[in-house]
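Practice problem: predict the structure.
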Amino acid sequence: MDFKGSDTVPGPRTEDQLPHTAQAAAKIVIVGGFGVGKTTMVGSVSEIRPLTTEETMTQAGIGVDDNYGSATKTATTVAMDFGRIKITDQLVLYLFGTPGQERFWFLWNGLFEGALGAVVLVDTRRLEVSFDVMGRLEERGVPFVVAVNSFPDAPRYPLEDLRTALDLSKDVPIMECDVRRRASSRDVLMTLMRFLHSLAMTRSLT
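Answer:
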């Protein structure tokens, strides 16, 4: 999913310095299988020009990478995507998008290090990929929310049916989104932050 057609933040995205009001920063990882929209999400929501490590896809990936549903995809992330968004005047999120092909999953452990939470992007055409993704987060103890990216040709299901299919706890938020739209991507991040806050409050009471 190419973010060239994504909504953009008003004004130029050339300022790399932190806002002077920022008092705290948190690392958030955007994870999911190949072609689910991770690069697009980082690109659509970042307030700075996003850093990407995309390379042109070649014939060498045929039979190695699962390109299902991505016939028009010409580039792929090989290390990470990086962006930044200010949630409040005091809180800034650093966004790290992970590579989707399984042969690059060895990079995930380093990207998970120090992460406050994660967004798991899901494509309803390839739900089975999400189990390994969520399993890796659970092994690392990284809390996450699930965002179902709305591809035009993907089947639509009630969210509670998807929760059951993904074997999600009733406490884990799941929502639909369109990662091409900045407002939609930001809503996902805000849902994650509210979820992390609720977990912190629960732990403080125990």
